[in-house]
Amino acid sequence: MSLSFDAPSTPSKPTISPTDARAIALTHASTLQIRKSLESSILESLVYLVDFPFSKPFPPGLTDILSFKHHLRFFTPSDYDDLIEERNIVARCGYPLCENPKKSTGKSRLARVAGGGWVERKTVERFCSEGCARRALWVRVQLSVEPAWVREEMVGGAEVDPETGRVSGVDLDSVEPEDGWEAGLRLFEEAEEARKGGGGWRDKDDGDVRRLAEELQEIGIKDVGLKGKEKEGAVLADVKEREVGEKVVVTLPGEDGDTAAIEGYVPKASRTNE
Questions:
Q1: How far apart, in Å, are the Cα atoms of 224 and each of 99, 102, 103, 219, 228?
Q2: Which of 129, 137, 79, 130 is nearest to 100 (CA)?
Q3: Residue 167 forms beta bridges with which residues?
Q4: What tens digit of pLDDT does each residue of 205-246 get?
Q5: What pLDDT was estimated at residue 112?
């Protein structure tokens, strides 16, 4: 008795008409063009904000505040980090609404912060003060982690001209719309006023505060600051690398800039100038 088996049939692939294939190709090309245009806009805003603010008084005026919020409309936290880094390269405070230079103290890798911890010095030196660290990082935690080209509210009305490749339906040129510049961001001072009872505190703000606390802890700041006055800034120390067998020397700044240490331990009596 012989048995025979039919070979399994291979399902046929659906046939795509030339019209459908062209439509798919155009959609893909349009998506890439929208992304390219948004990335270009982000780069232009980053370059613009490196030298911000253009008016000198602090706190900044309404015009600078609205412009700042508007230029961040397509940013992700990663884009914002790039902006902070670029401002630091030209020795500016990482908070884009601050005109001060960034901190610049010592050349060692680590910095001692209030409370006795150690953090990467470059993270502490990104801003001119704890106040600006709070202001800058508060903005960061509000930014969407989704790229602008996948946000429905940003590109839902975007269209691409198949002939010229021009993107419309998205504000790519930083042109102020008729209803004004809005990006959904709130400055630290605005959030502080809302939390004190000024109105407008949102449910999402509680989550933003928790993320801000985490960001600040990474640079040795334990006080979020939304409930009280700013504390003193981080205490920086120079840590000298050593070979095996050598003594550890940690120098902490004294009241007049002098330092004193005994193999890494600084007694109270030695922390003041002799």
A1: 22, 20, 20, 12, 9
A2: 129
A3: 160
A4: 778 888 888 888 877 777 777 653 333 444 444 444 444 444
A5: 64
